[in-house]
Specification:
Layout (H helix, E strand, L loop, with lengths): L2 E7 L15 H5 L7 H17 L4 E4 L7 H6 L9 H8 L10 E4 L9 E5 L6 H4 L2 H11 L5 E4 L14 E5 L6 E7 L12 H10 L7 E5 L2 H5 L9 E4 L2 E5 L6 H11 L4 E5 L6 H7 L5 E4 L6 E6 L6 H12 L4 E7 L2 H4 L9 E6 L12 H14 L12 H17 L7
Parallel strand pairs: 1-2, 4-5, 7-8, 10-11, 13-14
Antiparallel strand pairs: 1-15, 3-4, 6-7, 9-10, 12-13
Length: 416
């Protein structure tokens, strides 16, 4: 039975604030802060527990080996000798944001009846551009069953940031869907990370039906306002599209195209007059997991606690819930350590529609397994990392050992 499984990136022991992502306001404004890797990972685990308790199938991905010495070797240097900016790029725990791991097209959408995944090249940001080999190894392991086809990255220079710029409308996760690829056009102060040619190449590799595939331009206003990915201003689930008024470059045209391709769509739009773009970005209202609740409970919005702290946002949400719309519940979660680097609840997960029996069980979560992961995190993840600590050879050894212990605990030695 095909169902949606959310795979969360476990927040790695090297989590730190280096301000590496231009155009990501949270990342820039927290540059130089002292991070708390242990608390960060435990917050992520608690989010998984929260979603399991809602009856949602849950998986996870392992953190990657950081600092990435093989990548630094290709640049002729080492973790000990690298210049500060390269060292920070090698240290980033950015693979935690699993929404950027890959673009996923579920089996019912593809001509060959397989679930296709294309690992994201993430070429726009140096610290993310070296994630894909580790991510690809992991996807090939988790999704080795013939039910899946896992593709290599789209070549540079066509930037691809994975599912963060991809939405799917359907009447049920296991049915045929309409896939929406959202791309940006560069030239502004902040980079557009998703290239149209990358999105089109993915649609071809995934053998999608052109009649059920849309390419929609993200608004430059949103990108220049700090929405570096579409999932900062829009999210879809089943027949619902929850979006900010400023999300798309041609709002009316985009809505019309979406309605034509999927007439049953219900567009829940937040007007800029009620929630400004800066408030939407600060609160990450749209970087929520819009989930189908069990037993006909409608949909729930798993959103960051920051949304509660932003009065315009919370007021709008409470009014929406009081109405008769498809989104019935507000479910705040605390992922503040990730949020300070610009990653909300939706960034931390990759949605894969699949039969759980076809996924390598080592990547599937249950409470007992999360207890074991949390115990490793509590014992081995650094409590704090300050920017100057990245030069410490002791800390390099500690974060490597922490990850190795987790891999061993979960019997994932292939990923060492
Ligand atoms: O790519 N932050 C990530 C946040 C990714 C959020 N993902 C989604 N929206 N799906 C990024 O900008 C900050 C790392 C640093 O500054 O050290 C960072 O990479």
């Amino acid at each position: 039975m095909l169902t949606e499984i959310n795979f969360d990136g476990i927040i790695g022991p090297s989590h730190n604030y280096a301000g590496l992502s231009r155009g990501n306001i949270a990342s820039s404004s927290h540059a130089g802060d002292v991070s708390q890797p242990r608390a960060a990972a435990l917050q992520g685990i608690d989010k998984m527990r929260h979603n399991l308790a809602l009856g949602l199938p849950q998986g996870f991905f392992m953190p990657l080996d950081r600092p990435d010495a093989p990548w630094l070797a290709t640049l002729g240097t080492t973790p000990a000798d690298a210049e500060g900016h390269l060292r920070a790029q090698a240290w980033s725990a950015s693979s935690m944001w699993a929404a950027n791991a890959a673009t996923v097209s579920p089996a019912p959408d593809s001509a060959d009846g397989k679930c296709h995944l294309t690992v994201a090249n993430l070429v726009t940001m140096p610290h993310r551009s070296h994630e894909w080999p580790g991510t690809l190894a992991q996807l090939r392991l988790a999704f080795a069953d013939p039910a899946f086809a896992v593709h290599a990255p789209i070549p540079a220079p066509f930037g691809d940031e994975g599912a963060a710029n991809h939405m799917r409308l359907c009447s049920g996760h296991d049915g045929q869907g309409v896939e929406i690829f959202v791309y940006g056009v560069g030239g502004g102060r902040f980079p557009a990370r998703q290239h149209l040619d990358a999105s089109k190449a993915i649609a071809r590799h995934h053998r999608l039906d052109p009649q059920r595939t849309l390419f929609i331009r993200q608004s430059d206003t949103a990108i220049q306002g700090g929405a570096f990915h579409n999932d900062v201003v829009a999210v879809a689930n089943e027949h619902v599209l929850f979006t900010h008024e400023t999300a798309f470059e041609d709002r009316e045209g985009a809505h019309a195209e979406i309605r034509a391709a999927f007439p049953a769509v219900e567009i829940v739009e937040v007007p800029a007059s009620a929630v400004s773009l800066p408030d939407a970005i600060k609160s990450y209202l749209f970087n929520a997991q819009l989930v189908s609740l069990a037993d006909g409970g409608g949909m729930g919005l798993v959103l960051p606690t920051e949304a509660q702290d932003t009065p315009a946002v919370w007021n709008w949400l409470e009014e929406m819930i009081a109405g008769n719309g498809p989104i019935r519940r507000l479910l705040p979660v605390n992922v503040r350590q990730s949020m300070a680097n610009g990653g909300g609840p939706a960034c931390l997960r990759l949605r894969v529609v699949a039969d759980p029996a076809t996924v390598d069980p080592r990547f599937i979560a249950d409470e007992a397994k999360l207890d074991r992961i949390a115990a490793v995190v509590a014992a081995h993840w650094p409590e704090v990392i300050a920017p100057g600590d990245l030069a410490s050879a002791t800390l390099v050894n500690d974060v490597r050992k922490a990850r190795a212990t987790l891999l061993e605990t979960l019997d994932l030695g292939e990923l060492v």
